[in-house]
Amino acid sequence: MTLRKHVGTAALSALMLAVMAGCSSTKLDQPAPVETRSPDTGAAVGTGTGQPAAESSVASVDLGKNAQPPAGLGRTVYFDYDSFVVKDEFRPVVEGYARFLSANKAKRMLVEGHTDERGSREYNLALGQKRAEAVVRAMVLVGAGEAQLEAVSFGEERPAAQGADESAWAKNRRAELKDR
Predict the structure, then answer these.
(1) Helix/strand/coil (H, E, C) string of 89-155?
(2) Is 76-179 in CATH node 3.10.129.10?
(3) CA distance 27 to 47
(4) Domain ranges of the chain
(5) By three-state DSSP, how is residue 168 classified?
(6) How far apart are CA 63 and CA 42, in angstroms?
(7) How far apart are CA 51 and CA 96, in angstroms?
(8) 2-34 pLDDT, tens digit each
(9) Which of 101, 112, 137, 174 could share a disulfide with 144, CB 3.0–4.6 Å?
(10) Residues 65-124: tens digit of each pLDDT
(11) How far apart are CA 137 and CA 152, in angstroms?
(12) Residue 144 in contact with residue 97, Cβ under 8 Å?
């Protein structure tokens, strides 16, 4: 062997000995100290002294595979005129279905984008697509898988309400979440 290989082997051996020496001081039979803070005061409840900490007031979340879609939430996200920004008031709808999809990887959803009758056919198809994609992006950010969602636009072709007034137009500016 060359001198270079001997030095490299010696350095590697020394490094391995140092790692093993550091590991031998870790006691695995002792529980790690844990500190739990009270939600009201922020004061420490348990300090790792072997005494149990107070029970947490945080509710557990069941992410089981048999979870049902969120109850009580609508499946429609409405938009302002000429906009594809998801409004804060529809955040519970987006988050609820995103969490449902995150817990149920085999489930798929179709997000349909719609517009009111104002604007050209081409413009409305593009705006409906942007609305559907905005909802998909928001759901992916919360945890839904991108492959679980598909965005499609119907533009003005499938109105939810007939009429040529603001009340009807407001109901038609939407994205609908549908099971696939």
Answers:
(1) HHHHHHHHHHHHHHHCCCCCEEEEEECCCCCCHHHHHHHHHHHHHHHHHHHHHHCCCHHHEEEEEEE
(2) no
(3) 18
(4) 76-179
(5) helix
(6) 28
(7) 38
(8) 555 554 555 555 555 544 545 444 444 544 444
(9) 101
(10) 456 677 788 999 999 999 999 999 999 999 999 999 999 999 999 999 999 999 999 999
(11) 13
(12) yes
Closest CA to 176 of 80, 116, 88, 111: 111
Do the beta carbons of residue 36 and residue 45 sit within 8 Å? yes
179 forms beta bridges with 109
Separation of alpha carbons 173 and 31, rounded Å: 57
Helix (H, G, I), strand (E, B) or coil at 79: coil
Q: In the Cβ-directed half-sphere of 118, how many Cα atoms lie within 13 Å?
A: 13
Cα gap 118→166, rounded to integer Å: 11
Residues 80 and 90: their CA atoms lie apart, in Å, by: 12
Q: 53: exposed, middle or buried (C-beta count within 10 Å: 0-12, 13-18, 19+)?
A: middle
Token digits for 107? 């489930």
Supply the pTM of this predicted model: 0.63
Q: How far apart are CA 178 and CA 91, in angstroms?
A: 17
